[in-house]
Each structure stands twice: as structure tokens, then as C-alpha cells.
Amino acid sequence: MARYTGPVCKICRREGTKLFLKGDRCTTKCTLDTRRGSKAPGQHGATSRKQKEYGIHLREKQKVRRYYGVLERQFVNYFEKAARSKGMTGENLLIMLERRLDNVVYRMGLGTSRSEARQLVLHGHIMVNGKKADIPSMLLRAGDEVSVTERFKNSKKFLGTKKIVGEKEHTTPGLLDNFRSATVPKWLVTDKEKVTGKLISLPARDDIDFDVNERLIVEFYSK
């Protein structure tokens, strides 16, 4: 299965909630806030149907999978690993997804969305404990430190750009501005000068602010 590359607003409309697939733009300009966004996409989107139990479980699973940008096979692997671990399977699953490198980079503010954070990792701009890491699905542990390469620190994408149009100066903010203004979860600390982030602990269930009922996901895979 290939990664979805179509309009991401359709995904949010299908799940009926903001998944912040465009980052901060979802808070200021979102299709869900319009009349069009009140219905699911497609020819039968406006048709009101009572969801069956299977449909409710499926939508919850799809919502989480799309929120973190994980493919179906990957998601199943995470669930199976969570089921084998000690503790609650649903909580283990969400914590595992939060520990993904691309998600941590996004939480640090080094990407305006998870897809952009994933791209930074794939392009080799991110380091973990001083070594280049280009695998977005890499699971981080408490004590791991995330930083950016020196080459990327000097790039226009990171620093932003300034140009004169007519008599006015137009500034395009870079990821450095986003990093310095980002609010990070309590399990993560950042150094605004060195542009680094460190996991001081593993995320807990209470630290995940996404509205999800993980019990429905467990029931979906238990059938």
C-alpha cells in the first residue's frame, strides 16, 4: 500500500475531526469549519447513516492511524507489539506512536506538520544522540537527544528568507522560528539556543492530548 498523497482535508472530513495534517494551518483555515466540511467526501457523503459497531471501531482505528501518518501494516505491527508488552494494550499503542522519531521532531516544533517532520528525517537533517537518523519510525527512549545537522542549520528552510518587493520587505519565517515558539509536552525539553530536544521520560497516556478512545481499537483487532 502506497502512502496517500491526495488532498488531506478529505481525510479530516472523512473522520469528522481535525487531524492537523497541515499543522497550524488547520487552526486558522480548515474545511471542517465550513458548510462543506460538515459532510464526508464523496458522492454519498451527505447521506446520513447509522454506524454499526464495526464501523465505529474502524473509524477510531483509521483516525489514529492517519493522525500519526502510519500505514496499515505498520499500525498492525505496532498493535501486536503493544499487545505483547506489559500494561494496557491501547495505552502501549499510543505511547509507542508518540515515541516515533518523526512525531518527536514535530513535537519539538522542527516541522509544521508530521509529514514535514517525516520529510526532514528522510532527507537526513535529523540526528539522534549525535548520529544521523533517517528512519521516521525509529522509536526513541528516555534520555535520547534529538538535534539537526549543521548543514541544515544554515539552510533557508531553517532560517527563513527575506526579500524586497517594491519598497517593502517580505519575510518568510523558517523552522527555527517555529521551533522557538513551539509548546512542547512535559516529557520533552528543548534548548532554544542549541536547537536540541531531549526525552526526559517516556510519554504517558495523560500526555496525549488527541481525542481518541483506544479501547475501540483494541476491540477492533480482538474480533
Structure description:
The protein has about 220 residues and is of the alpha+beta class. Helices cover about 40% and strands about 10% of the residues. It is built from eleven helices and seven strands. The protein has helices at about 10-15, 25-30, 55-70, 70-85, 90-100, 100-110, 115-120, 150-155, 155-160, 175-180, 215-220; strands spanning about 125-130, 130, 145-150, 160-165, 170, 190, 195-200. The strands form two sheets. It has a five-stranded antiparallel β-sheet. Strand 6 and strand 7 (about 195-200) form a beta hairpin. Helix 4 (about 70-85) crosses helix 5, helix 5 (about 90-100) packs across helix 11 (about 215-220) and helix 6 packs across helix 7. It is globular and about 60 Å long. The two termini are about 25 Å apart. The mean pLDDT is about 85.
Question: What is the element layout, followed by pairings?
Answer:
Blueprint: H1 8-15, H2 25-28, H3 53-68, H4 72-84, H5 89-98, H6 101-108, H7 114-122, E1 126-128, E2 131-132, E3 145-148, H8 150-153, H9 156-159, E4 161-165, E5 168-172, H10 175-181, E6 188-191, E7 196-199, H11 214-222
Helix pairs in contact: 3-11, 4-5, 5-11, 6-7
Short structural description:
With 223 residues, the chain is an alpha+beta fold. It has 11 helices and 7 strands. The radius of gyration is 19 Å and the shape is globular.
